[in-house]
């Protein structure tokens, strides 16, 4: 067999055996160029991806992620000689969401390849992956938009990719959309970034991204309008909305701009992208999505109408904007190596959102209220019999998605508060900057964050932040200290606190 392989002569093995859910490290992605073409009326999309990979170890099998995608053609060739590589067949293992491309001969170690793939699929309707949404105007007209929600493991359902957080690469996207719509991506469009492809459609061409994880990618096709401003450091901030509610973005635009400026000072690190967009999605299943440079929100948490929204709506909006902006550094610039440390980035953002909110509205007790709420909720869920440690290991995407929010975010946020109070604000921020400087655009384990404090601490050999924090992250629950006295004898006990339907149990 010579050159490319298409769907008619490839093999689609929908029930192929899944021996290992993690991708092998024989190949590492370097750069993606992707074209996406959604059909909003037909609720489908098609696309093309060219993935440049480096061959770390010789292999005759390419393994990538693909989920609910129909692969129509595949072509693999060496980069330096534009030479096609002969393939035997491909197969898709639906149960492990992987695409296998079997080659006739082993790849050359140290070589670079282009993996070129064409694909098509249905736009999803569950606010996940690449999905379609609709909203109605005041006149009752139904309007459509398409958007993405990839975290944690859904980029693979929009295009074939190496969809693991520690397989970072750079991305260049092109999006075809109707002439009367706009498209948005993590980066801004190139200077001459529009190309007419038909009488009805235009292709938008976007700048290349920084090195990043697939779950942080985002793109939107919609008919929204926007208002924009510039931060003191030159970042363009925009908030989008349907035309009828464009006046409701003013509060969000003001808050997000001030918050971005605050976090640049808090992290002591400039925001690394040129722009940041905030986009409402009517029925988004989460309050906000922290993709890099293009943030998506449930509309209720981004649009604010002075005549209709309440004071509580305003506070909620401020907290959500603070949370998703906090993640732009701690989670996006520096990303966990695997989902076992997902709690670290979400918990830190939950901790920092109160600090950011208090900076913008110093008269509101947002930080105090959130700290109290986080503690109460975390204590409740962490006392249940089915709780689990903050840091847990799973290779199964379904198990990753089904973690308990109150453990992952709220307990993690509160132990960050404990650490902050233990070492003091100055040392905490110095350690944070050391961590960001050392690991920017890279991947980390939670121990890397704890170890950043060792570079700044001057407590002597008796203090070990990693050891101290691991007692809270590697074991589930929290301790209950009980003291009993019998005459002159005092007995102290430490047990795991367990709540069971209102009754206290000790283990």
TrEMBL record:
Query: Which gene holds the coding sequence for this protein?
Result: 20216420
Q: InterPro entries, alphabetically?
A: Aminopeptidase_N-like_N, Aminopeptidase_N-like_N_sf, M1_APN-typ, Peptidase_M1, Peptidase_M1_aminopeptidases, Peptidase_M1_dom, Peptidase_M4/M1_CTD_sf
The residue ranges of the Aminopeptidase N-like N-terminal domain are 29-216
Protein's cellular compartments: Membrane
Gene3D superfamilies hit by this protein? Neutral Protease Domain 2, tricorn interacting facor f3 domain
Q: Could you tell me what this protein is called?
A: Uncharacterized protein
| Cofactor(s) annotated in UniProt | Zn(2+)
**Which domain of life, per UniProt?**
Eukaryota
Q: Which family does it belong to?
A: Belongs to the peptidase M1 family.
| UniProt topology in membrane | Single-pass type II membrane protein
* SUPFAM superfamilies hit by this protein: Leukotriene A4 hydrolase N-terminal domain, Metalloproteases ('zincins'), catalytic domain
Q: How is the cofactor bound?
A: Binds 1 zinc ion per subunit.
Annotated GO biological processes are: peptide catabolic process; proteolysis
């Amino acid at each position: 067999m010579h050159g490319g392989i298409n769907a008619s002569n490839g093999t689609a093995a929908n029930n192929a055996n899944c021996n290992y859910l993690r991708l092998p490290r024989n190949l590492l992605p370097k750069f993606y160029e992707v074209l996406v073409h959604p059909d909003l009326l037909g609720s489908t999309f098609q696309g093309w991806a060219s993935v440049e990979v480096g061959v770390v170890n010789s292999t005759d099998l390419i393994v990538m992620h693909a989920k609910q995608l129909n692969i129509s053609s595949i072509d693999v060739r060496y980069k330096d000689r534009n030479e096609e590589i002969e393939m035997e067949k491909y197969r898709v293992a639906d149960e492990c969401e992987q695409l296998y491309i079997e080659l006739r001969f082993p790849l050359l170690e140290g070589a670079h390849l282009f993996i070129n793939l064409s694909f098509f699929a249905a736009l999803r309707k569950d606010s996940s992956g690449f999905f379609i949404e609709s909203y109605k105007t005041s006149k009752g007209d139904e309007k459509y938009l398409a958007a993405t929600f990839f975290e944690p493991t859904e980029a693979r359902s929009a295009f074939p990719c190496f969809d693991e957080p520690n397989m970072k690469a750079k991305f260049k996207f092109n999006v075809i959309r109707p002439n009367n719509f706009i498209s948005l991506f993590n980066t801004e469009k190139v200077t001459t970034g529009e190309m007419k492809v038909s009488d009805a459609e235009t292709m938008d061409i976007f700048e290349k991204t920084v090195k990043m994880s697939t779950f942080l990618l985002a793109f939107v096709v919609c008919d929204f309008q926007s208002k924009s401003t510039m931060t003191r450091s030159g970042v363009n901030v925009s908030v989008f909305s349907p035309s009828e509610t464009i006046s409701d973005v003013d509060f969000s635009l003001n808050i997000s701009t001030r918050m971005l400026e605050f976090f640049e000072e808090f992290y002591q690190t400039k925001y690394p992208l040129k722009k940041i967009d905030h986009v409402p999605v009517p029925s988004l299943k989460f309050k906000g999505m922290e993709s890099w440079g293009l943030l998506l929100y449930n509309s209720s948490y981004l649009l604010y109408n002075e005549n209709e929204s309440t004071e509580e709506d305003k506070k909620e909006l401020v907290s959500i904007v603070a949370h998703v902006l906090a993640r732009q550094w701690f989670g996006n610039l520096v990303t966990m190596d695997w989902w076992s440390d997902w709690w670290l980035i979400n918990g830190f953002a939950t901790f920092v959102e109160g600090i950011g909110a208090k900076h913008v509205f110093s008269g509101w007790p947002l930080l105090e209220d959130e700290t109290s709420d986080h503690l109460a909720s975390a204590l409740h869920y962490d006392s249940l019999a089915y709780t689990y440690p903050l840091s847990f290991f799973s290779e199964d995407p379904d198990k990753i998605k089904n973690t308990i929010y109150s453990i992952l975010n709220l307990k993690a946020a509160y132990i960050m508060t404990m650490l902050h109070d233990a070492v003091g604000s100055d040392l905490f921020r110095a350690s944070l900057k050391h961590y960001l400087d050392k690991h920017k655009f890279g991947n980390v384990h939670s121990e890397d964050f704890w170890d950043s404090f060792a570079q700044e601490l001057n407590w002597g050999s008796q203090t070990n932040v990693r050891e101290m924090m691991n007692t809270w992250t590697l074991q589930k629950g929290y301790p209950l200290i009980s003291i009993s006295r019998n005459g002159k004898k005092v007995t102290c006990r430490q047990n795991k606190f367990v709540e069971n339907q209102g009754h206290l149990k000790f283990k």
